[in-house]
Amino acid sequence: MKNITDSFVSLGYWPSAGSFGFNTDILATNPINLSVVLGGLIFFGKGVLSDLLDNRKQKILNTIRNSEELRGGVIEQLEKARARLRKVEMEADQYRVNGYLEIERTIFDLMTSTSKTLEQLEKNKNDTIHFEQQRAINQVRQRVFQQALEGALGTLNSCLNIELHLRTIIVNIGMFEAMKEKTD
Questions:
Q1: Are 27 and 3 in contact (CB under 8 A)?
Q2: Which of 142, 168, 163 is closest to 153 using CA atoms?
Q3: What is the largest CA-CA distance in the chain?
């Protein structure tokens, strides 16, 4: 400590027009050097430091402003997406309702068509049964007529002799010729 005070005291002993030299006492020169360096830094560095801080401040403000703009854009896009979602949900509900209505209409149409088809099939079945009955009745009639004819021919053949048989044939031929002349 004594060296520091001695260095300040020794300033008074310097001759005013004396020689120039180096002070090798580090403790005495350090506060002076530091004060000169700090003064120079403050004087010359104040503008640079101020500019750096202003630039940094502007970058931060720009970043905040851009972030706010992006946030606003994102919020707007989110609202648009929500609106589209609501619209799509409403359309989906409408399609669902329309789908159910279409299914019910299709079921009703199918049931109506099936009912008509069944009625037509029933009518066709009844017509077919009636036709088959008529055909069976006609076959039975033909069979009965054929058997009756065969029985009558058998009876006639057994009862008629050749002479009576020839007279019957001649009479029948005469009747056919008379019928033929009438039609011509």
A1: yes
A2: 168
A3: 201
Rounded CA-CA distance 73/57 in Å is 24
Q: Could you tell me the CA-to-CA distances from 34 to 12, 30, 38, 68 in Å, in that order?
A: 21, 6, 6, 46
**Inter-residue contact 30 to 7 (CB < 8 Å):** no
Give backbone dihedrals phi and psi of 130, rounded to 5 degrees, phi first: -65, -45
Statement: residue 14 has pLDDT above 50: no
**Are the CB atoms for 31 and 11 separated by under 8 Å?**
no
Q: Per the confidence metrics, is the pTM higher than 0.85?
A: no
27 within 8 A of 4, measured Cβ to Cβ: yes
Confidence (pLDDT) at 168? 83
**Does pLDDT of 161 surpass 60?**
yes
CB-based contact 168:160 (threshold 8 Å): yes
Q: Exposed (0-12), middle (13-18) or buried (19+): which is 79, by Cβ within 10 Å?
A: exposed
What's the rounded Cα separation, in Å, for the pair 102 and 108? 10
Residue 9 confidence class, pLDDT cut points 50, 70, 90: very low
Q: 44-88, pLDDT tens digit by residue?
A: 777 887 888 899 999 999 999 999 999 988 999 999 999 999 999
